[in-house]
Amino acid sequence: MAAATAGWQLVARYGIKNPEVLPSPSQIVSAGWQQRAALERNAWPTLRETELGFAFSFAVSWILATAMDFSSAARRAIYPLLVASQTVPIIAIAPLFVVMFGFGIAPKVLLVALATFFPLAASLAAGFANVDGDADRLLRSMGASRWRIFWTVRVPGALPFFFTGLRVAITYAIGGAIFAEYAGAESGLGIYLQQMQQVFRTDLVFATVAVIAICSIVLFVLTYLLERWLTPWRKHERAGREAAR
What we know:
CATH topology: MetI-like fold
Distance between the termini: 34 Å
CATH superfamily: MetI-like
Order of helices and strands: HHHHHHHHHHH
Structural class: mainly alpha
Largest sheet: none
Shape: globular
Number of strands: 0
Strand content: under 5%
Radius of gyration: 22 Å
């Protein structure tokens, strides 16, 4: 990354020499710092949409994955619909959501949820299907109820799969909010990005993209911290495997 940034700086300074076409990294940082108040003001609505949309996606994915785990008929009915939902491009249906739900936060939340719930639901369903069969049978032989087995064995066993899907989904979340804002919004990084494109402030376009990337990276890193907190036993499992080697 350091080499790419240095090469970019040299090309922008001695090659293209047109900041409207290719601003240098130093110009991008300078412009972003000068407009930090505007970037911060527009970042909060986007993060709010991402937060609410991801929370809705989280709840829906757990409900659907649980239903598929408890019922094979539900799995046959729901899973094809999950796959079909991902064949519709978000950029195509975003204007329809704005027409149906207006310019408020509702269409943004729904679009973020649509962009993120499939990896969550699919990874959870795969995790439930790959739990420890011996532990499941042991609890059944001891008279445990289906719900007790679900919370004691299946949910902990599915969490590693879930966090893999969570890391995939979290990278789509802010992008989904940006697409929704493109279709119509009053504020947000997507709107600010469009405004800067229209006035040919390429340096601020790059600065906005950098803010979006930083937010996505921060959310991505937070998934590892959340996984470490919710699955403390995995640290001991990894230590045991390394000791065995």
